[in-house]
Design goal:
This protein has two domains: 10-117, no CATH class; 120-187, no CATH class. Helices cover 15% and strands 46% of the residues. It contains four helices and 15 strands. It has helices spanning 17-24, 76-82, 126-132, 171-177; strands spanning 2-9, 12-16, 32-35, 42-51, 56-67, 71-73, 88-89, 100-103, 108-111, 115-118, 121-125, 139-144, 150-160, 166-170, 184-187. Strands 2, 3, 4, 5, 6, 7, 8, 9 and 10 form a nine-stranded mixed sheet that branches. A six-stranded mixed β-barrel has the order 1-14-11-13-12-15. The termini are close together.
Length: 189
């Protein structure tokens, strides 16, 4: 049985270096609140407000380190509250997505695009993927057992020497399955 730990991903934002400076000040560097499951990734102490056409969320956690492009990852429920209709996409695929207003302690910016509902996915270290016969970008079926068992189809395999084994689902998906961070999922195919 191929078991994978689950990480539930709440709304969060990845910022570019340029946007960090615009929102927090010249030569500002994010501070680590806690390390995440993926090597080198962290939740920052800093947060921003995000403002859409119908609503806003204050204190949206920034994940670091800085990226080449700013990207806000939200659930479908979050999207309704903000008044947006972002597509389900893999991280980094932001072309043609909605934009949003970001507010930090020293600045406010509007990004023209970058809001997505992240596609559910599993990070595989290359060794794990080889051992299990899984290829990068392969679509998997994954079962979450427990109080509300559910089978997720179309789970994207993401393979890299820089990854640690972890399945990422958003809060809507976790709630539907009654799952929480630290639970396990079973890869069916």
């Amino acid at each position: 049985m191929k078991q994978v730990p689950i990480g539930v991903s709440a709304r969060h934002i990845h910022l570019s270096d340029w946007h960090i400076e615009q929102l927090f000040g010249h030569r500002y560097y994010l501070k680590v609140l806690k390390e995440l499951s993926q090597p080198g990734q962290f939740a920052a102490t800093e947060t921003v407000a995000v403002v859409g056409p119908k609503g806003r969320f204050d204190k949206v956690r920034i994940l670091g380190p800085a990226r080449s492009k700013t990207q806000l990852e939200i659930s479908r429920t979050d999207a309704f509250a903000l008044g947006l209709n972002p597509p389900v996409r893999e991280s980094g695929d932001t072309e043609g997505t909605p934009g949003i207003t970001l507010i930090g302690p020293v600045g406010e910016i509007v990004i023209a695009e970058g809001v997505i509902v992240a596609a559910r996915h599993i990070h595989f270290h290359t060794h794990d993927a080889i051992n299990w016969g899984i290829a990068d970008k392969q679509l998997l079926s994954v079962k979450i057992e427990g109080e509300r068992p559910l089978i997720f189809e179309g789970v994207v395999a993401r393979v890299s020497d820089n990854y640690a084994l972890d399945m990422h689902i958003d809060t809507d998906e976790a709630n539907a399955a009654g799952a929480k961070t630290g639970d396990n999922a079973i890869i069916l195919s």
